[in-house]
Amino acid sequence: MKTIPILPGIALHELRTADAADIFAAIDGERGLPGTLATLRAVHPQRGRIRCASSRSVLEAPYREAVFTIRDGERFIGLIGFKSTDPLARTTEIGYWLREAWQGRGIVTTAVRALCRMAREELAMRCVAIKCATGNGPSNRIPQRLGFTLDHVEHRAELLEDGRYTDANVYLLNLADRNTSVRP
Fold first, then answer.
1. SS3 letters for 40-101?
2. Which residue among 27, 81, 151, 182 is least enclosed by CB atoms within 10 Å?
3. How far apart are the C-alpha atoms of 86 and 62, rounded to whole Å?
4. How far apart are CA 102 and CA 81, in angstroms?
5. Element (H or E) spanning 109, and its range?
6. Residue 19: strand, helix, or coil
7. Nearest to 135, CA basis, from 164, 110, 115
8. Closest Cα to residue 95, out of 83, 78, 77, 104?
């Protein structure tokens, strides 16, 4: 199981089936907050998704969509990972969610930086995307801070808990240029 230390006491841990209960409890406790994963309704469907995501080794690049828990010591505080990976086009998207009490500490920024490095060095991706709800300022500041470029707005991109849809800003980082790197 892969572990990536990102800050003192905080690390990314490859997703395991055993993480399902922690994930559900954390998200369920923050329902109604902006950015909460609205579609998660029960532990068992999430376990199925976790089993699928964790059944392959991180080393099976570039066909693997690595997903990690973010942990402060042993405490689950968030999720981050790759999604919508296209191994032929060598593109992927990074998605993230962090519990409210840990936001504003640079944790997700540091975690995204680590996944961008993994996308380039281990997965041979040429482009990474991040989608953020247009009204979620803190989430939008992460790709902006790291040197991503706003490419376009995807309309009705994300289903909210109340049944409405929100638009999303789509940010891109070109990794094909060896001179491109995320900002410190």
1. CCCHHHHHHHHHHHHCCCCCCCCCCCCEEEEEECCEEEEEEEEEEEECCCCEEEEEEEECHH
2. 151
3. 9
4. 18
5. helix 107-121
6. helix
7. 164
8. 83
Residue with tokens 């032929």: 88
Token match 């572990």: residue?
Answer: 3
User: Which one, of 172, 159, 90, lies nearest residue 131 by Cα?
Assistant: 172
Domains of the chain: 3-125 (3.40.630.30)
Q: Residue 94 in contact with residue 21, Cβ under 8 Å?
A: no
Residues 6+ away with beta carbon under 8 Å from 162: none
Written as six digits, the tokens of 96 are 């993230």
Residues 6-15 as b/e (b if ≥16 CB within 10 A, e otherwise) read beeebbbbbb
Which residue, among 44, 56, 45, 108, has the nearest Cα to 85 in the 3D structure?
56
Bridge partners (DSSP) listed for residue 153: 169
pLDDT tens digits in sequence order for the chain, 184 residues long: 789 999 999 999 998 888 888 888 877 766 555 444 444 444 444 444 444 444 443 434 445 588 999 999 999 999 999 999 998 999 999 999 999 999 999 999 999 999 999 999 999 999 999 999 999 999 999 999 999 999 999 999 888 777 889 999 999 999 987 665 665 5
Distances (CA, A) of 67 to 40, 49, 151: 16, 11, 24
